[in-house]
Amino acid sequence: MPRAQKAVKKYEKKFASSLSKRIGHALRSVGYFFVKIFKVFDSKLTIMIVPHSKNKVINFQTNVFALTLGCLVAVGLISSFIYFNRRAITTNLEITNLEGQNRETLASLDQLRDENTNLFQAAKRFQTSLSHSLSLVGLEPVDKNNNTTLSNSDLSSLFNSSDVVNGVAREVTDIQELTSYLENAVQPIEQIGKMLKTQQTLFQEIPSICPIKSPNLHVSMAFGPNVHPVYGTWYIHKGIDFSTWRSGDPVMATASGQVVNVGFDNLFGNSVIIKHNHGMYTRYAHLSSYRVKKGQFVEQGEIIGNVGKSGMTTGPHLHYEVHIGSDVVDPSKYVNIKFSK
């Protein structure tokens, strides 16, 4: 055991001596490196500036460290200048783009304001028409239904108060009040719809539609005093003549009812007479052909024949009459359509 301990101690001393030598050698190498670097950077340099003219030569002394540091500072300054110059160019481009977007936004805002003005003009017309319609059916105008929100309901208050507000707030206020008005208008319009639905059967039983559907449809002769197209004398025309300048267009029953007469005579040519409820009759004359027979029940809008020029006529047209009992009435009161004459 004593020999082993001596050997270990001897080995430890040897290892510590070797490690100390290596560390000392490494420190000397590092120190030598830094000394060498210091000598390099401390090397003296002479910079001479020789002008092309005969002026005095300019020279000054420096060392490598100062020259290197100066070069690094110069490179840093140039790099910073290039970087910030690029940033400035990019920023200017972004500003230009934002200015363009701002101009487009302002143009869109102007267009929106124009459309907003058109909307309120249409709303005024809507208010007038709705108020008139409600008064006709015995319902209260919208402006009496609610007076609690935003000067609700009456568009006249909307157009008076909105003149006080400026800018975007004005448009927002206008839209809010219009929304309130339209919400309040829903209920009376629904009431009108329900009323019309309950009266749907009545509208089907009276001659309330036009007997011909055509873009070329026009009134060639109105009801009342007219010059006879054949004899050239004044007489009372007991119906309306509808023309499309051609034969063959389908003719519809203007109300539901029962066909009581189908036939031909020299005056009316091929004609159909339909009896409706409430003591009303309709006559369709000068047909080129008819598609119904006596005793047949027809629905409103059902095709009963075609426009023609049979009987006493100067051209293809439909002679249409409405009778209430024994009286002949003006059909235009029941055909709620305006035609060019």
Structural class: alpha+beta
The residue fraction in helices comes out at 40-55%
Rg from Cα: 52 Å
Strand content: 15-25%
Instruction: Give a count of the beta strands, DSSP E runs of length 2 or more.
Output: 14
The succession of helices and strands, N to C, reads HEEHHHHEEEEEEEEEEEE
Oligomeric form: single chain
Report the major sheet: 10 strands, antiparallel
Our measurement of the CA-to-CA distance between the termini, rounded to an integer number of angstroms, reads 141 Å
- Compute the average pLDDT: 81
Low-confidence runs? 144-153, 161-165, 337-341
Count of helices?
Answer: 5
Shape from CA axes? elongated
Write the layout of secondary structure elements.
Elements (H helix, E strand, L loop, with lengths): L1 H40 L2 E6 L8 E6 H73 L18 H7 L5 H32 L1 H6 L12 E4 L2 E4 L6 E4 L2 E4 L6 E3 L4 E9 L3 E8 L3 E11 L6 E2 L4 E5 L10 E7 L2 E3 L12
Antiparallel strand pairs: 1-2, 3-6, 4-5, 6-13, 7-12, 8-9, 8-11, 9-10, 10-12, 10-13, 13-14
Helix pairs in contact: 2-4
Notes on the protein architecture:
The radius of gyration is 52 Å and the shape is elongated. The N and C termini lie far apart (141 Å). By secondary structure, it is an alpha+beta fold. It has helices spanning 2-41, 64-136, 155-161, 167-198, 200-205; strands at 44-49, 58-63, 218-221, 224-227, 234-237, 240-243, 250-252, 257-265, 269-276, 280-290, 297-298, 303-307, 318-324, 327-329. Strand 13 and strand 14 (327-329) form a beta hairpin. The chain is built from five helices and 14 strands. The strands form three sheets. Strands 3, 6, 7, 8, 9, 10, 11, 12, 13 and 14 form a ten-stranded antiparallel sheet that branches. The model is unreliable at 144-153, 161-165 and 337-341 (pLDDT under 50).
